Amino acid sequence: MHRIAVGLSIIALLGGCMAAPQPSLRDPDKMISSAALFDPARFAGDWVVAQSATRGCAGAQQSWKLHGAGAYALSGIDCTGPVPAVLEGRAVLTGPGARLSPTQGFAKEPIFVLWVDQDYRVAALGTPAGNWGMVLTRPGMARGDLIAAAREVLDFNGYDLSRIGR
């Protein structure tokens, strides 16, 4: 009986050490939508995290390599948690529009490509739960006006821009 009490005490102590869950980055009462016109082949390639809620992620690189019809092999840095992490896995297009389901990374939450500019240089990504949101740019192609447009899309979809780094 003493072992059970000690075990429960340890579990309670460890539970107190866990970080409190962060509140959502987006207003759940606002609608969220993904890009309707989306070309998976044009989205494929290397991206740089321009802005996210994860500290230390500005400049992190991600690779979205097209892997078969409607899937990406993912690698690089995952900027969806409290700290940057290794990104490895796969994301499968589930539609409608630019909606993906990751097998690993991105907190295993649905990935919505909320917006991408017509030349696929800047994109806004998020998830319906609002646990993460980010702006991606192609390496060397960051443009202030397009990043501002991506932020407007995040705002339109209910994201708190004050929590997504500038």
TrEMBL record:
Residues 1-19 form the signal peptide. SUPFAM superfamilies: Lipocalins. PROSITE patterns: PROKAR_LIPOPROTEIN. Keywords: Lipoprotein, Signal. This is Apolipoprotein D and lipocalin family protein.
